[in-house]
Each structure stands twice: as C-alpha cells, then as structure tokens.
Amino acid sequence: MANEQSGRLVRLLNLLPYVSRHQDKTLMEIARDLNMDVAEVRDDLDRLHLSGVGRGPGEMFDLAHTWRGVTVLDDQGLNAPLRLKPTEAHALLLLLESLETLPGLVNVDAVRSAADKIRAVTNTAGVTDVDQIVANTPVAATIAAAIAEGRKLQLRYYSATSDQLTQRTVSPIAVLQRDEQTYLRALEGDTQKTFRFDRIREIEVSEEAVDERAVHAAADVDEPFAFDDGNVAHFKVRGDALWMAEYWELELELTPDEADQPPEWVDATLRYGSDDWLARFCLAHADRLRLVAPEDLAVKVRERACRAADALR
C-alpha cells in the first residue's frame, strides 16, 4: 500500500509540471506522452485540484480540465518534472552515447556515468518504452517465436466488428503500434488483417509453415488498418458530447470561435471498416450522435432503432 501511494505521489508531481507546459494538449495526448490511461490522467487532475501544502489561499494547486486540454491557474512553483518521458529519456541517452565517441571534447567518464544511470531506469514505470512492454507479454513472445520459426499462428480472437469469438489460422507479418495499442498484422487467406493484442484470447504456434506471401508482405506502419481508402461516416454530434473524440477517432469540424462554446450539433467524420460495426456504434450512442451518411446505412440504423423502441413498448 505504501509503495502504491508513493508511486501515485510521484505520478502526480510529474503530471502537474507537464500539463503546465502543455496546456494545449488533450487528455489523450497527455496520457500517451506520460504512458498513462486517460482515466488515470483525469483522476489525477481531479485529485490535484485544490490540493497542496496547505488549505489557505495561495497554498493550493488550482487547475481546470476538459477534453480539450488543461488550464493551470496556480502550480505552486512545481514546474520541473521529476521524471523524463520515454521519448525524452531515449533522446538524451542517444545524445550521451554520441558524446562518448568524442574523447577530448567532454569528460567521457561523466558522460558514461550519466548514460549508465539512464539505462538503469529506462525499464521503470517512469520511462518505459512501448516495445519493452510488448516484449514481456505471452502473446508477443508467441508471435515472435512464430515469426522466427516461419510458422503460422492459431488464434482464438474476439472481433469487435462482429461481436464474436472466432478461431483463426494466420501467417504473421509484423507487430505494430497505434494509439497506445499493439496489433498483429497477419495474412488470413488472401487478405491482410489486423488483430489487437488484448482481444487475442488464446494463441499458439502451428506446425504449418507460414504462407510465402506473408514473408514478402509489407505492413503499413502509418496506416495499419488500411483505412486510407476506406469508408467515411458523417455524423451530427451533440455539442455536450464532444468528449467522444477522446475515445474514437472522430474528426470534429469546429471553427476557432466554436471551440469554447460549441453549437448544439457539430459535424464530424469517422473512418470505419464494417457496416455492422458502424450500425452498432450509432445505436449505442443514439442519444449523442446522428448518422448522416452513408444515407442507406443511416436509414437502416433508424429502422433498427425504431424496431428496438417498439419492442420495449
């Protein structure tokens, strides 16, 4: 318990100076940069608000946060981070390693000592690199073994698109990172597909050799889901539900004047891969958004909503 409280205190004291310097970042961007969950960031900001060294005026932190960002009114002078972000730690380590190769220009012993200290903590929670997290999971280890041995994988996978558990046999291509999630890109039949690590229920290496096409296939790191040429849905989103953009890749069409006081309905777009998934998404959030296009799918969603309402009468 003491270690948990100490760890949270360090996290809080690291969060405040970061948001003070990056008040234009959303909660999702802050969570990504500090290797935290959005819920953790929100809870920590709530805890920081009006806490401090005392209870009187001028003795407490003062801040406010929304889905758009954080406004820090009083940081009580706490404006220096206690820990480095992962990218900062590895960038600093890279610089120190380059300085080690320049004897005579710097104190090499001091540079090596600093580099060793950074290497010693790069596996701790403060500066963990995403690749180190992935490498320690059983799923990742099994996938790595299959790729190294040139074998297919057998998966029991939960598909959010169809809301079903299915058995798959795939030829692994690569492991990719996207928005704090880790994915397997693999060939199933003639189609490249993407499988999210946390939805893989069971996995084992098959005796069957990998499909030769997977060996020579290239996974698009920038667009692993192949949505560049995919379908785009157009919505009307309620002005008080714009927080949805923190959880789904909704592109809100807001003017600078509307950012502080959104209108009742805001236009938005979202790339999607399955009509079934989009229909379920719209029905699940029917009180917050309206599907405008594709028009034929919008009609089907309205019909399903009406049937559901009739069934409840």
Give an overview of the whole structure.
With 313 residues, the protein is an alpha+beta fold. It folds into 4 domains: 2-74, Arc Repressor Mutant, subunit A (Orthogonal Bundle); 86-128, no CATH class; 134-216, SH3 type barrels (Roll), CATH 2.30.30; 231-312, Alpha-Beta Plaits. It has 11 helices and 11 strands. It has helices at residues 2-21, 27-33, 38-48, 86-99, 108-121, 130-135, 138-149, 212-216, 256-260, 275-284, 295-312, and strands at residues 62-66, 69-74, 151-159, 164-178, 181-188, 191-196, 200-209, 231-238, 251-252, 265-272, 289-293. A 5-stranded antiparallel β-sheet has the order 6-5-4-3-7. Strand 3 (151-159) and strand 4 form a beta hairpin. Helix 10 crosses helix 11 (295-312). The radius of gyration is 24 Å and the shape is flat. It starts with a helix and ends with a helix. It holds the Pfam family WCX. Residues 8-120 form the PafC HTH domain. Residues 260-308 form the WCX domain. Residues 139-205 form the WYL domain.
